[in-house]
Amino acid sequence: MTTAEKTKITVQVIVNSTKEKVWDSWNKPKHIVNWCFASPDWHCPKSENDLQPGGNFISRMEAKDGSFGFDFGGVYQEVKKHEFISYIMDDGRKVSIEFSETPTGILVKETFEAEATNPVEMQRDGWQAIMNNYKTYTESL
């Protein structure tokens, strides 16, 4: 029996900041709540993060009008400070994030397995919007 290869989607930004600020902004809950949402009518009122292999994370994403919300979470598989993170989402999909220095800043590249409910383009656009929020927030620190 074979299993179908899951579609992988990659989003990325180059953040004009130090690797320390980029790493902290990505991983510390006090920062995550400021950027982890895809549009201005949403927010992230709560985040918890145990950044270590086997550690759990959860970020609460909610519409500001209270009409909808969900918990986004998973379990870390691998963590290399300032370089790499991989985790498995609560629904079993895999995600990896690479942090690398470039001449213009820190490249943050996130690759995730698509889910089967929404179109790939919608998923890519949503995750890229969150990544763009992250860049804007981190560069403001």
TrEMBL record:
Domain of life the protein comes from: Bacteria
SUPFAM superfamilies the record matches: Bet v1-like
Entries under CDD domains matching the protein: SRPBCC_CalC_Aha1-like_4
Domain (Activator of Hsp90 ATPase homologue 1/2-like C-terminal): residue spans on this chain: 18-137
Family statement drawn from the similarity comment of this UniProt entry: Belongs to the AHA1 family.
UniProt protein name: Uncharacterized protein YndB with AHSA1/START domain
Organism of origin: Algoriphagus iocasae
Lineage: Bacteria, Pseudomonadati, Bacteroidota, Cytophagia, Cytophagales
